[in-house]
């Protein structure tokens, strides 16, 4: 009888824990916003807020994609930054060569899809995800430097600028794209067999395998999603600044990984939410912006970001431990 009661209570426990995570992150966003506004008044200026939400959108889009990888138990991808770079460069080159906008967007994203698929296949075959994506990132960055000769590529076409600078209802279009992708991925993870498979793999890969779930397909698809989302960031950057170079996304891997971990996605996989990842991206973007306004040195910014990420991971694991005990 007690076993039945325990089992029946468990879903409510998980739901309350998820809601607690969401509330904690929302409170974190508000706290960072208030503290930043009080200590750095320029933080709340219109121009700075627009810059911050744009940065949060780019970090968030890539982080939402990476959440799928983390949920499968493969931790993170360390080639996100390089994938965004190569996609941006290919997009700028295509526009500069006179390609129509749709082709200049679709073809680079198709390349990003292939990049993700190749990495996903190797990881599904048993290779370590960190080593695989680190090696892939180095190779991609090398290719990007070769094809650009380490120079800035000018798009020279004004047509895509609306994709980078438009503000429907006063909100940057990057934010709208970010919100739409978050909503879509939330539905995918909660309502589709693919989403349930992704979480099951991270929770218990042996059970997933014995249940006949298509693990290889789900892992490869997760890497494709992460890579394409990183590619979208590259395209949006080109649309905003009308150019691309290999140094555009310096430090992007760190910010994206930080957003996923601050968002409370379990390092071991199986538990997480793209909504929480989105909130984590907002926290990281606001924190980074505040530190830039306060003129913190790069090393200091990394230290503070590291402490925030470490603290969030410890806190979330503690809450999980208390909830399961």
From TrEMBL:
Membrane topology listed for this record: Multi-pass membrane protein
GO cellular component, one term: plasma membrane
Main location, first listed in the record: membrane
Record's subcellular location: Cell membrane
Name the UniProt record assigns to this protein: Unannotated protein
Transmembrane segments: 20-39, 51-71, 83-99, 130-149, 169-189, 218-241, 247-267, 274-292, 298-319
Entry-linked InterPro entries: ABC_transp_permease
GO MF annotation, one: transmembrane transporter activity
Cross-referenced PANTHER family: ABC TRANSPORTER PERMEASE PROTEIN YPHD-RELATED-RELATED, RIBOSE IMPORT PERMEASE PROTEIN RBSC
Species this protein is from: freshwater metagenome
Record's keyword terms, sorted: Cell membrane, Membrane, Transmembrane, Transmembrane helix
Lineage summary: unclassified sequences, metagenomes, ecological metagenomes
